[in-house]
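User: Is it possible to get a 3D structure for a protein together with its bound compound? The compound here is CU-O-CU linkage. I've pasted both below.
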Amino acid sequence: MLLTRRHVLKAAAASALLPRLAAAGPVTLTAREARQQIAPEGYPDTAIWGYEGGAPGPEIRVAQGARLSRRLMNELPQPTAVHWHGIRIDNAMDGVPGLTQQAVPQGGSFDYDFTLPDAGTYWYHSHNRSMEQVARGLYGPLIVDEPSAPDIDGEWVLVLDDWRLDPETGALAGDFDNGHDLSHAGRLGNLLTVNGGFDPAYPARQGARLRLRLINAANARVFELGLDGMQGWIVALDGMPLEEPLPVSGAFPLAPAQRADLIVDITAESGTAASLLSIERDGGYGLCRFDVAGQGARATREAPVPLPPNPLPVIEGLADSPLHQMRLEGGAMRWLDSARLGETELSGRELAQLGRFWALNGQADRPETPFLDAARGSLHRIAFVNETAFDHGMHLHGHHFRVIAPNGELGPWRDTVLVARGETRQIALVADNPGDWLLHCHMLGHASSGMTSWFRVT
Ligand code: C2O
Ligand code: CU
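Assistant: Yes, that's possible. Here is the predicted structure of the complex:
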């Protein structure tokens, strides 16, 4: 089956209509090859790798506090593993080959089973050879519902991606470890998609209040997003509710792996369309649209109220907490002089020949010893010092952290922070989830060519 657009019913209506499925063995999540119409109609379809054969894979939706269990079946021609991005998860279920599990071989399976402590918008994706496997389509949305839903008329999960396709054949460009991409901004595509298709259209009514769950599944593209024909507020980032909804005015960035939950009121007239825009230098391009037909129930509304908070740790005594510096080094224009690979110091030229272009604190692969060895429950500050000529989206596994604003105030909870070129960004982390956790750039080609480290909580 090709991708069907995900029509999300209002939660109440959906649960009234859907019969409970009898438990008949573990629910499977099969990673396999498939074909999908990624390019616009009239162009050839594309060979992808997808969960259940779709990119994105099926929407997985669970109630906050519930358990999720899925048996990954690997029908791909490569080993794989699933990472549940943004979930403050049991370490053994984190899906990182070589750190929390073995990669699942071709024909093999792995049972994931864990609880979901936080409501919000998350996603799942391959964490083996992810710069290739995610680019081929191995990702999907993971939605955790609040016990009480916000007052909305409808909801759409919008998974953004960019694909590098040959327009003649529809084929995905296979140059996943092309050194130019690795050493620059990463693999950027030539076709922007929402939910695996070009410029999809969804129905809406004028005056309707919708929740849009945006997920950036692209390998490297930082989307600059804008709204047309709707008025919106950001109500959550990386799954975690903001204390106050933030009105959208102009463009806002969404780095790879980041999510933003918006509440929008459709202001476009019946017979026209509202759009989610990608803001480029020369204007805004529609990523997807809402075809407006008819009038919604209510005309004007108050600003939305905040979503209910998640059970996040309390941050106290920040000024006394240890500050750990992580230098982001290398890449085009600031080439590494040298860095360690394992225990060996190599020159930048030698590293480049081995496909390594970046380093974190002078190390161009995941080091033997953790960047941070934290006692469970301890508070830490990490300063990401970006000495490179590119932006990086730094992601921590198993935890959310708060971004520290330049004035020292605590900003939003996130699991991925965009650190612009030349900038230093501090975060506050309560290391409260025991285990070994990756810390890496989510520009996936950067992660595989030097920007991967890890931390331990015991
Ligand atoms: Cu979204 Cu290490 O991953
Ligand atoms: Cu990076």
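Confidence is low (pLDDT under 50) at residues 1-22. The pocket of CU-O-CU linkage (ligand 1) is lined by residues 83, 85, 125, 127, 257, 395, 397, 438, 440, 442 (CB under 6 Å).
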